[in-house]
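Today's session is about reading a structure prediction critically. Students often jump straight to the picture, but the first step is always the sequence itself: look for stretches that repeat, for charged clusters, for runs of hydrophobic residues. Only then move on to the predicted structure, which in these notes is written as discrete structure tokens rather than atom positions. Here is the chain we will use throughout the hour.
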Amino acid sequence: MQGGVEEKSETGGRDASKAAASKSDAPPHKLHASTPTLSAPVTAHPPPLPPLPTLPLRSSASASACSRNRAAAAASASAWFLPQAASPPRASVSLPIPAARGGAVHSSPSLGACRVGGGGWANRRRFSLLRDIAENSHRMLEGQSCLISRSLPSSCDQESRLAYMTYHLLEITRSKRVSDYGSIASVNRNFHSLVRSGELYKERRQLGIAEHWVYFSCNVQEWEAYDPYRSRWMTLPKMPHNECFMCSDKESLAVGTELLVFGKEILSHIVLSYSILTNSWLPGVDMNAPRCLFGSASFGEKAIVAGGMDAQGRVLRSAELYNSETKRWITLPCMNKARRMCSGVFMNGKFYVIGGMASNTEVLTCGEEYDLEKGTWRVIENMSEGLNGASGAPPLVAVVENELYAAQYAGKLVRKYNIKDNTWTTLGELPERPEAVNGWGIAFRGCGERLLVIGGPRVMGGGMIELHSWIPREGPLRWNMIGSKPSGNFVYNCAVMGC
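Below is the predicted structure for this chain, in token form.
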């Protein structure tokens, strides 16, 4: 679940007058860098799971049986995390088996019913279900319900269900490409609660597993998500209406299982949070020092924002760390230089803020490195030289497997950073079709092992949004278009979520 270190990708809506100065058909809101993701290394498959014990039910056993159930569940989990541990003994009672049709889990009259007795048929049926869910989850419950689904009843004993859930959780989290947790949530109320609690995502994070989705907005209140590995699209619920998202800057940041969108009102700021656990928008938690036009990046359940501008228009040196599990912001030491319209990335376990502007006229070419262990900032001179355009758009930067890349939009070039000597090497060109206005209107993101360019050509009355991908480990720069859809606007905001 840990996975994506996301670089800052606020392709956020900027004041339309800025883009209009450089191109007449510029978008009403400009793109600036939201939060791309640096993928943490994915661990090897864990050892095979021990056989699932069939557990006695309260209806046919005394309270002492419940203690045995808890012990068996603990032993099952222990045997998985510690392969040398002995497998727990088998009991003789089967567990609930939902009906499965066409690769998906459906409601049926027998859902949650328990079969007491020998257990041979039940064991075969149970393991068949586990295998089907693990292997066919990508075909289950397509669309918005793929992340959360309905609650269904279960009449089985609580202790047996918890033991079953423990084993099933460990089995499911062994897969690196599991996004359809709706198929698990639909089994019964307990599985539904388990998915909504986020525990499955915590398990995935501990195993070093991450699945990446790209979230982007081409309309001020509408968001879509795209799975680049399965070419799946999902439309998010509309954001709650707020005038600040219609006519001013907004930033986006994906962290943990949340998509945060930041907006600026006349004298204050607003934060909205979309949760993949509930498929809904809620008010987010305000920063200690609210801001806009900041640089940001996320790694797992944590994110850092740095710089930006407060409600009074002052350029900031301050930085904050957000924990999506505790929903708290922690103030960090200040940077050496105040900056706004900058970009952020995580690389090699450290946070970098790159470029930006110190004032309306002063463009910064230096970057700063924040050491999370020491709590200190270090200035890196000329880190972003040549990456900023005259419009002052945030540098288009992305990290893939701890390597930093940049899109030089003036020359339509892709460059790679050499951290040892603080230099950039040109690798090739950006895709031909994505169109930008001085750095606004396209997204440049790290998405697991991929580098993505998101944008598209504009024509009278419409256009296309295209997603182009390159996997650096596979060889020299060569872009492949992996997805597209009609759109009449530029990309206003974009963020990559890895969980």
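Discussion point for the tutorial: The chain is about 15% helix and 30% strand.
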